[in-house]
Amino acid sequence: MTSLHADEAFLGHYHLSHDPFAPRVPGFKFFPAQRKPVLGQLHHLARYSQLLLVVTGPLGSGKTLLRQALVASTNKQSVQSVVVSARGAGDAAGVLRQVAQALDVSNAEPNAILKQVVQLGLTGQEVYLLVDDAEQLDESALEALLALAAGTPEGRPHVFLFGESSLIADLEQISGEQELFHVIELQPYEEEETREYLAQRLEGAGAGIELFTAAQISDIHESSDGWPGNINQVARDAMIEAMIASRSAVKRPKMGFTMPKKHVLAISAVVVVAVAAAWLIPGRNKAPTTTGAPTEQAQLPLGKPTPNVEFANSGQPTNLPMVGQPVMRGPLAEEAGGISEGDDGVPVEGSSATPPTVTTTAPPAGVPAGTPATPVAPVTPVAPAAKPTPAPTVATAKPAPVAKPAPAPAPAAKPAEKPAATVAKAGAAGSSWYSSQPTGNFVVQILGTSSEANAQAFVKEQGGQYRYFKKVLNGKPLYVITYGSFPSRAAADSAIKALPAKVQAGKPWPRTVASVQQELAATR
């Protein structure tokens, strides 16, 4: 904050044009209480006294403001004011150099300066020499200033020293028994003067004394001891505290039940996952059964190429139509009557109620439900075991050559379910790749998802060096997508900076291949 401006919130809250309690304010009028009489006294002594004039008071008592008022109230045509600061130049050489420069004197000596003062007096101009921070003057500087104040019979400057009360003892030591200076001690304000001072400051900024209560004004006066510099600071602090208190009261939440934000986000995430899961679960249509062998109808594409998918325990790839996700049935149990049914009531291959194996296609659009499906490719049945489990039945859009029958799996093993057909191959490939990498290498972990379909889609979309592996977190599967394989962490960090912006948005981070291999081992 500068000396002329308060922070924006402070000014805006009270609708102020400027900070009314800054040390320097635009258009501020000199406050008359106990200061205007002193100003008149200084002018009087400068005209009729031959002594050096000293104004003392503690820090914040208004000495500098009084010095400014003295300069501003002089007649510029008849008075040349020379202002000198003792801060950083408190010896005789430093003070005389400033005076000589202001009066355009080449020789910074008391006699040369006095000659210039006499010359200015002949032209009708007096010289006022005003020294700020005079308590920092050393003995040599005080002696030089006393010599200038004494002057010569032809002329002399009027010397004013503004400083703290410690200055008086130094002058008394130099003067001895001689009367060489006159002291004016500034006094603090009374409470009523403090109130008038606050009102004048606020009115200059476009506000009024009603911003403070009578109790606040009393507190400000007591805390500041009546010194104007302290009044400025205490009053400003009081206004800021009141502003903060009023804003806090406005922002205080109403009483009532409010669910924490993190709970709302968690519920939203669960809802999104549930909707996504419902969308991804394939629909199943049960065909009406008639007397004889039941038929199962599935919505399969016609005339579209089908990808090869390798089933568990199968040595031959089989063409599988893909509509979103394939529909596959598996036996669950055998009933006491000797008929084994799947989870939708369709008799399972090998039971007494079903012919060997039937491959069906979905009826064309417009064909009534219940129309028997057209056999496409009969498959030679497999010799039944004690409790046979059939190989998956595959429907194709076009007639295909008869495939060799897959050997029946062991009775205890369950057939791979529908999503596992695609996942098994990709997951196994990913696991083997991570196992083949050096343990000291690094990969960049991109993200983790509980949906393998999402992981597959992400890897397919990004391509390149993106892979994923499966781990178990809190008893649930998590599919972790990684990028690349790098010999050092620095190389992995550099690769992260080159990733697309939307990938970097997920805050990817480097990790060792060894840590991935440990998670894979734990998952197995």
Can you describe this structure?
The chain has helices at 8-14, 36-48, 63-72, 92-103, 110-122, 139-150, 166-175, 191-204, 214-224, 228-251, 261-280, 418-436, 452-462, 489-497, 501-504, 513-523, and strands at residues 52-56, 79-85, 126-132, 158-163, 181-185, 308-309, 318-319, 331-334, 340-342, 442-449, 466-473, 476-486, 509-512. It has 524 residues and is α/β, with parallel strands linked by helices. Among the domains are: 8-24 and 191-251, no CATH class; 36-185, Rossmann fold; 424-523, 2-Layer Sandwich (Alpha-Beta Plaits), CATH 3.30.70.1070. The strands form 4 sheets. Strands 2-3-4-1-5 form a 5-stranded parallel sheet, with helices on both faces. Strands 11-12-10-13 form a 4-stranded antiparallel sheet, sandwiched between helices. 23% of the residues are buried. Residues 353-401 have a biased composition (Low complexity). This is SPOR domain-containing protein. Residues 284-415 are annotated as: Disordered.
Compact summary:
Residues 284-415 are annotated as: Disordered. The protein has 524 residues and is α/β, with parallel strands linked by helices. The protein has 16 helices and 13 strands.
Portion in helices: 25-40%
Euclidean distance between termini CA atoms = 64 Å
Q: What is the CA-based Rg, rounded?
A: 49 Å
CATH architecture heading of the domain at 36-185: 3-Layer(aba) Sandwich
| Class per helix and strand makeup | alpha/beta
Number of helices: 16
Within the CATH hierarchy, at the fold level, what is the topology of the domain at 36-185? Rossmann fold
Number of strands: 13
Shape descriptor reads elongated
**Could you report the average pLDDT, rounded to the nearest whole number?**
74
Q: What does the largest sheet look like?
A: 5 strands, parallel
Low-confidence parts: 1-6, 284-406, 408-429
Strand order of the largest sheet: 2-3-4-1-5
CATH superfamily caption of the domain at 36-185: P-loop containing nucleotide triphosphate hydrolases
Q: What's the CATH class label of the domain at 36-185?
A: Alpha Beta
Fraction of residues in β-strands: 5-15%
Strand and helix order? HHEHEHHEHEHEHHHHEEEEHEHEEHHEH
